[in-house]
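Morning F.,

Quick status update on the modeling queue. The single chain you submitted on Monday has been processed. Sequence for confirmation:
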Amino acid sequence: MKKIILLIVTLSLLNINLHAFAEEIVYKVAGDNNFPPYEYMDSDGVYKGFNVDIMKAISFTTGIKFKYIPMKWENAYNSIEKGKADIIQGMKESEERKTKFSFTDSLFMNSQSVFVKSNTYNIKSEIDLIGKTVAIMREDSVYNQISKISQIKIIEYDSVEESLQSLLDHKVDALIANTLTVNYLCNENNSTDLVKIVGNSLNEKKYAIAVEKDNTILLNQLNEGLKEIQENGMYDIIYRKWFGAPIKNSREQYELYMKIVIYIFISMLVIILIIYSINKRLNKIIEKKTEEQKVLMAELREYDKMQFMDKIISSIAHEIRNPLTSIKIYTGQMKDKIENKEFMIAAAEDIPAEIDRIDKLIKEFIEYTSPRKPLICNLNLHDEVISSIKLVKLQINNIKLSVNIDKSYYIKFDINHFKQIVINIILNSKDAVKDTQDPIIEIFAEEKDNEILLYFKDNGYGMNEKDIQYIFEPFFTTKSHGNGVGMFVVKQMVEDNGGNIIAVSEGEMKGMCIILTAKKGNKGDTNER
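Structure tokens below.
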């Protein structure tokens, strides 16, 4: 019977102990009862604030239970040491405090800042507070640091609200207080845009949760919960809830603007340097290609000239043969008619004229064969066309040639270039009409505005729309024996003289018309070069 009673008593005691172990552990959390927005009792007696919400978020994510005990700060600071609390939910970390507490990872960096009105520009840092009136909290640790500034007037207030209002009411020039507290109050009364931060942060220290020294188990649990709410976004929501948008720091803004300007400047400089480098290389390539093109152009012109030089020479020989025949006749009869006065007078008149005729032809030939840059002068269009035709007269003796040009027309052109252009076009037309029953080349002109239009029209085989667009391209030809250089050279020389040239065709077997446009010249300046 005694054994049964002893067993029942033992089981009862064991059951009581098991219930005790089964109870959840609840950690006591101490905090300030009047430190908004960190932690405070509101008018309804509800304990709230950033620190309180952070602890609730950690409790939600980890399952750890907390009991909140609001009290005066000096009591909260000593609560762990006196065994009245397990956790202090927020305090600045310092070397001295590390000897008494273990701190979690940082909640944020807590600091004090210099606040001024947004329209204040003569205070840019704490150094500019010389001779100014500054508001701070009573018994604030920043007093010793600020009081060292010469000629500064310090006014102490019991609360941050009072000191902030004195700044807004222009009673003080600046305010030095907890950065986040002022930020919270400005958000609460919609005065964020009226205040700005200047200079560097003061007394910047890590703000964290504190536990008993060497309580690593609890410390690790809190750190895990803190890490989780930072990763899942709960921390950011709580931070914005209590601290809102930060007050602008004029120095940080200025530095940001300067960084942006410097970045843009460097980027633009790099772009300019890249463009300059590319442009320099392109210029070298262009210069090289231009020189090559000039050499090629000179070679093409010379090549074209040599291709039909024999034709011109044969025409020149034919033109020279006529005056030489006259001279030969006169000189052959002189010994027999030396006494014939009329004969000798006729010989004296005709022989010099024929010699001048030969001399003129030779000069024109030399002028034509002398390559040079264009020397613009005023040319009588009719006379120069007729003069140019003489050089190829033998080549077109079986073609009807019609020239209808007003003798009052003058153009500004290089005489050598003009002759070569006319000869090229006529010889090109000659080839086009060779299979035509009644070949004809018409040359006529008209005046339009400040220009003269010279037309070369033939009734040859013409060109189709596909081919005519390439007529002035180098080495393009529809002839079986052509080299495709002549019309290309013509276009280049026309443009060198400030003119323009186009080709118009009615289609194959319907003829072709070349239209040369030149600047109008003046009759009175025919010797101008």
